[in-house]
Amino acid sequence: MDVAQDLKWKRAKIEERIGELTAQIAEARETVAALDRVLSLYDPAWADGRPGTQHRASRKAKSEATAELDRIIGGTNKRRMTLEILRTAGRPLSTHECAAAFAARHELPADHPGVPTITNRLSSTLNILEKQGLVRHAETDDPRRRNWEIA
Q1: Rounded to whole angstroms, how far apart are CA atoms 14 and 26?
Q2: Averaged in consecutive runs of 10 residues, what is the pLDDT profile of the chain (151 residues)?
Q3: pLDDT score recorded for residue 18
Q4: Cα separation, 79 vs 122, whole angstroms
Q5: DSSP-assigned beta bridge partners for residue 138
Q6: What is the pLDDT, as a whole number, of residue 56?
Q7: CA-to-CA distance for 112 and 58, rounded, in angstroms?
Q8: Which residues lie closer than 8 Å to 5 by C-beta, 6 or more apart?
Q9: CA distance 66 to 59
Q10: Class of domain 59-150 (CATH, top level)
Q11: In 10 A of CB 97, how many CB atoms?
Q12: CA 95 from centroid of its chain's CA atoms
C-alpha cells in the first residue's frame, strides 16, 4: 500500500468511529431527556435538565448544617446518652424531647436548626434500643405519639 491509501483507510476508520460515537451520544441524550421528564414529576423545581436555584441552595444549606452538627455531637455515644437522658428524666419522653435534652447537653439551644436532625438520629437509636429490650413505649393518651421510657 502507498501512503495515500493508508491515509484514506485511516480516515474511513475515524469516520466510522465518529458515526458510532454520534449514535451513542444521541442515545444518551434521549435517556437524559427521559430522566428529566420523570424528575420533573418528582421535583417540580427541576426544569430543562437543571435543578432550580432553590433546590441547590437548600441541599447545600442542609449539608453545611449537618456537617456542623457532626462536628458538635459526632464523637458522642448516642446510645449511652439517650439511656442516661431517659433514666434521669423521671417521666417518659417523646423522641423530640430526648433530642432537645441531647442538644442541651451539648449546649445547643432547643431551636437550633440541627435539633430535627438529632431527632431523626435518636429515633433510629431508640428503635435499636427497643429491639435490644432496653427501652419501651410508654402508654399515652394519643396513640399517634410515642413516648419512651427505660424498660
Answers
A1: 18
A2: 87 87 84 83 70 48 66 79 89 87 83 80 86 86 81 83
A3: 84
A4: 8
A5: 147
A6: 47
A7: 17
A8: none
A9: 11
A10: mainly alpha
A11: 19
A12: 20
Q: What is the DSSP string of 101-118?
A: HHHHHTT--TT-TTHHHH
Please, which residues have CB within 8 angstroms of residue 125's CB and are 6 or more apart in sequence?
A: 78, 79, 82
Grid coordinates belonging to 48: 430543562
Residue ranges covered by each domain of the chain: 1-51, 59-150
Please count the residues of the chain.
Answer: 151
Instruction: Spell out the alpha helix ranges (H) of 43-137.
Output: 53-73, 78-89, 95-105, 115-131
Cα–Cα dist 149/94, whole Å: 9
Amino acid (one-letter) located at 47: A
Query: What per-residue confidence (pLDDT) applies to 105?
Result: 85
Residue 107 contacts residue 116 (beta carbons within 8 Å) = no
pLDDT at 38: 83
